[in-house]
Every structure is written in C-alpha cells, then in structure tokens.
Design goal:
It is a single chain. The protein has two domains: 183 residues, Rossmann fold (3-Layer(aba) Sandwich), CATH 3.40.50.2300; 133 residues, Rossmann fold. 41% of the residues lie in helices and 15% in strands. α5 links the parallel β1 and β2. α5 packs across α12. Strands 2-1-3-4-5-11 form a six-stranded parallel beta sheet, sandwiched between helices. A four-stranded parallel beta sheet has the order 7-6-8-9, sandwiched between helices. It has a two-stranded antiparallel sheet with strand order 10-12. It is α/β, with parallel strands linked by helices.
Length: 339
C-alpha cells in the first residue's frame, strides 16, 4: 500500500508539504504542487479522505455528464477522467444525458446540488448553451471535447477546424476535386468547425463550394445515417470521388454504402473519418482518419478541473491537444478518366 511518505519521496519534498498540498493549504509554490500531484498520480496514492472531507465540507465527488457510454470515443475519454480522479482521491458519478438536448441548466443544477459535487466535467454541450457561463461562475466546471465558443468557461479540445482542413487537403493533394462531406444535424461546435475546415480547404485550393456535396447524418453519428448520407451523395448525377466524414462511424457507413453500390474503396472512392476509434482497424480497408487523443483529453480535463477546484493561480482556461492525420487504406489518388 502506498503511503504519504512514498509520495513525499517520489516528489522530493517533505511529508508536511504533501499534506499541505492534499489539504489544499496555502503557502506551497505552484511548481511544488504540480510535483506532488504528479507523484500522487504516478504512485496511484489513495489518501484516507473521510476526516478531511468532513472538516472541509467537501464531497470529493466529480460529476461527469456524457451522452453515450457505448460510443468508443466517449468511453476512452471517460477512462482518462476516472484514472486521474481516482489518483487524486475523487469518486466519479457518470450521468448519461443520452443526447446534448437533454443537458440544461435545471438538470445540471439539480445533479450538482443533489450530489454535493465538488466539480463537473461535461462531454457534450451544444455550441449555443450560453447558460453555462452563468453556471460556471458558481461551480467549478470544465468542458471536454465540446464547448460553447463565446462562453468564458474552461474547456479542452482539439483544433477541429484545422484537423478537418488538413484531412481534406490530403484528398486535394491526391488529385480529388469533387469532394463531399458527411456532417451531422447536431449542434456540437466540433461538427460546425469540421464543416468550416472542409470549406477552408476547398477555398484555399480554388474549389468552389457545392452545397449538393454537403450531406447530413443523424445527430448521434449513427452507422445507418452514414450509409444513407453516402448513398445520397453517390447517387448524384456527378458523384464525388472522395468523401470526408466528421466521424469514423459515419465513414464506416459510407464505405458500406459504396460497397453495396458496387464501388471499391479506395480505387473508386476515397473516404476519410475523424476520431480514430477502435473500429477503424477492425477490418480492411483500414480507415484513413484524424487521430484524436481521447484518453489524454479525459486525463487533462480532470487535471484542469482540479486546478480550478483548488483555485490554482494561473489555471488554464483554454487547452488544445495535438491531433494527427493517420493515412491508411481508404484514400488513394483520383483515377484518371481521360483517354
């Protein structure tokens, strides 16, 4: 069993300093607090918190609001949050909102007050949930992945607009000019920014916008809606040679639809996805996609929330993690059609 003395030795500080950090007492330099916190995380130290909680009127509970536990994207983010929260001595309560429209101020306030939580992490807010700003003035809150662009609320994400732009630019470099997008009817900022990135890439390449090449799948990125959106695009009189999808599940639906229509990916149609969930390499062709560091998003969101709970000086309010374009088997140069 890891003891507080082990944490002190790992961090290179005294036991008293570790105790002050764990009890959120003043007088400890920020860099020293960070050393202790990292040591706690590395050693998986779990302090006896009962007496301290009663003394400080803390619950040591973190609320997490997620729309879909079964989605591999969210399950990986949740793993990151829960691993760090456990190491910091917090319990987590995960509430399934089922969809973003179920998230409102009344629900959040009720959950917070009922559970006496010390803070909250939201995984799916709509881009126009402006009420969050007023709520965040009362309680520690971090938006993970999705956030309200104009609200001054701490958030952590990737640069979805830039990532989408780079993904479409890859298709353009391969000679594709008639490039479609399968986006979503939801109100997530990520969907909006991925559409913006798609349009940015076309504009920079001198390719005119064609609204017939913009198809909308369901709000929850269902496989079936991806299939239908791709079918509609591929049934156009002048079908696209490539499709950029705002999620991997939609991209897998597009590949399935192309196969049913007698098209081979990537020779007849190039397809790209977004997120790099586990399904992308379960069967051939392996999906070209944008890799999002889901576990790290969860891990960093909990650390960010902890900074705001403890009122750490200079705590970050806007964090963007790096993404990566992963080239696999679903994209290829556009086939020449001239004689």
């Amino acid at each position: 069993m890891v003891k507080i003395e082990d944490v002190a030795r790992e961090a290179g500080v005294s036991v008293a300093t570790v105790s002050r950090v764990l009890n959120e007492s003043c007088g400890v330099l920020p860099e020293t607090q960070e050393k202790v916190r990292l040591a706690v995380e590395r050693l998986h130290y779990e302090p006896n918190l009962s007496a301290r909680n009663l003394r400080k009127n803390e619950s040591r509970i973190i609320l997490i609001l997620a729309p879909n536990f079964s989605n591999p994207y969210y399950s990986n983010v949740l793993s990151g949050i829960c691993d760090v929260s456990r190491n910091l001595g917090y319990s987590t309560l995960i509430y399934n909102t089922y969809d973003s429209n179920a998230l409102d101020e009344k629900l959040v306030t009720s959950l917070f007050q009922k559970n006496r939580a010390d803070g909250m992490i939201t995984l799916a807010v709509n881009r126009d949930d402006y009420w969050l700003a007023q709520y965040a003035e009362k309680y520690p809150l971090v938006q993970c992945s999705e956030y309200v662009e104009e609200a001054a609320v701490p958030h952590i994400s990737v640069d979805n607009r830039l990532a989408a732009k780079e993904s479409v630019q890859h298709l353009i470099v391969q000679g594709h000019r008639r490039i479609a997008i399968v986006t979503s009817t939801n109100r997530y900022l990520s969907s909006t920014n991925r559409l913006r990135g798609y349009l940015d890439a076309l504009e920079e390449a001198g390719i005119s916008r064609d609204d017939s090449l913009i198809a909308y799948a369901s709000a929850d990125y269902s496989f079936a809606s991806g299939k239908q959106a791709a079918k509609d695009l591929l049934s156009l009189p002048e079908a696209p040679s490539a499709i950029f999808c705002v999620s991997d599940i939609l991209a897998l639906g597009a590949i399935a639809s192309a196969g049913k229509m007698g098209l081979q990916v990537p020779w007849d149609l190039s397809v790209t996805g977004f997120d790099d969930v586990d399904y992308t390499t379960m069967f051939h062709p392996y999906l070209t996609t944008v890799a999002v560091p889901c576990y790290e998003l969860g891990r960093r969101s909990m650390l960010l929330l902890y900074d705001h709970i403890t009122q750490k000086p200079g705590a970050e309010r806007e964090v963007y993690l790096p993404h990566q374009i992963i080239l696999r088997e679903t994209t290829a140069p556009q086939a020449r059609t001239d004689a």
